[in-house]
Amino acid sequence: MPQTPRAERPSPNILSSSAAPELTFYPAYTFKASATWFSWVKLPARDIHLVLQPHKKYADIAISSVAPERWGYGGGGSRDDAPLLLFYLNHPIQFVQVVGVVVVLEDYFEKFWLFTVDDGSGATIDVTCRKPEKEAEAGKGKSTSQAANRPTEEQCLHETLSALQIGTVVQAKGTISTFRSTRQLTLLRLSIVPDTTHEMALMSARTSFIKSTLSKPWVLSLDDQRRLSREARDDREQGHRHAARKRERQAKLQERERRHARLIQEQYEAEEKQRAKAADATRRAGHALREHTVKH
């Protein structure tokens, strides 16, 4: 059940369009130098809905660090499965986190968890996560006791989700996707906030990050741009060399397999000739034996 922002006024956290300077959107190979690219960016739900924006220049860039089977609801509905690449001013963002209270908890869905978080920003956001397949859970139950004593990150996430209740304060981390044209959080990490002091500390950190980083356009020096361009070029060349070596290995493997196939075929044909010769000799011997028996 998608939730919509309750306020449509411009966000106070960024410059108004009339006062904002012309933003520079740097090439995708520079994103790794951004303070937001590999971070769980602390954002209020309202900004996720209203402030973050896509950019057509990067429409073909996919967020490949998240397994596709964990995207969205996993079937049905008119929604965009893939995580969204969005921008706060010109800061590239792929991972976000929200802190708030669970106000809706839908526990009757068979294939996924769905709950709604209200962080007091004037909007709520739906959070969704796939439930484990029953067959997979049965397989996990047969694991060794040593593995059972070390639960995986996914198992910890599922245990936390199973313990959720309305009124629980959570810190939810994930990627942004859409369901029926409304943004939602596809969950990757979840922790329960233990007390108000911890919650206030998280809120303060969010406000500080917005003020110190997000509210200012990302500026990348020419030297850094040149360095990142060289690194990207080197990475491409290394990738080309790796691909060429892989093709060469595959070609050698295929040639070896063809050679082995020829040898096997030749050996089979030689054995067939031997078997045919032996069968012919046996037939001649049998015919001679019958003639000898008839004469005597």
Main pleated-sheet profile: 5 strands, mixed, barrel
Beta-strand content estimate: 15-25%
Percent helix, as a range, is: 40-55%
**CATH architectural category of the largest domain:** Beta Barrel
Mean pLDDT: 82
How many β strands by DSSP? Answer: 8
Largest sheet: spatial strand order: 4-5-6-8-7
Count of discrete domains: 2
Q: List the secondary-structure elements in sequence, H or E.
A: EHEEEEEHHHEEHH
The total count of helices amounts to 6
GO molecular function, one term: DNA binding
Protein name: CST complex subunit STN1
Subcellular location: Chromosome, Telomere; Nucleus
InterPro entries: NA-bd_OB-fold (IPR012340), RFA2-like (IPR040260), Stn1_N (IPR018856)
Describe this structure in words.
The chain has 296 residues and is an alpha+beta fold. It folds into two domains: 28-220, OB fold (Dihydrolipoamide Acetyltransferase, E2P) (Beta Barrel); 221-296. It has helices spanning 45-50, 134-141, 145-148, 153-162, 196-214, 222-295, and strands at residues 41-42, 86-88, 91-93, 96-106, 112-118, 124-130, 169-179, 182-192. The protein has a five-stranded mixed beta barrel. Strands 2-3 form a two-stranded antiparallel sheet.
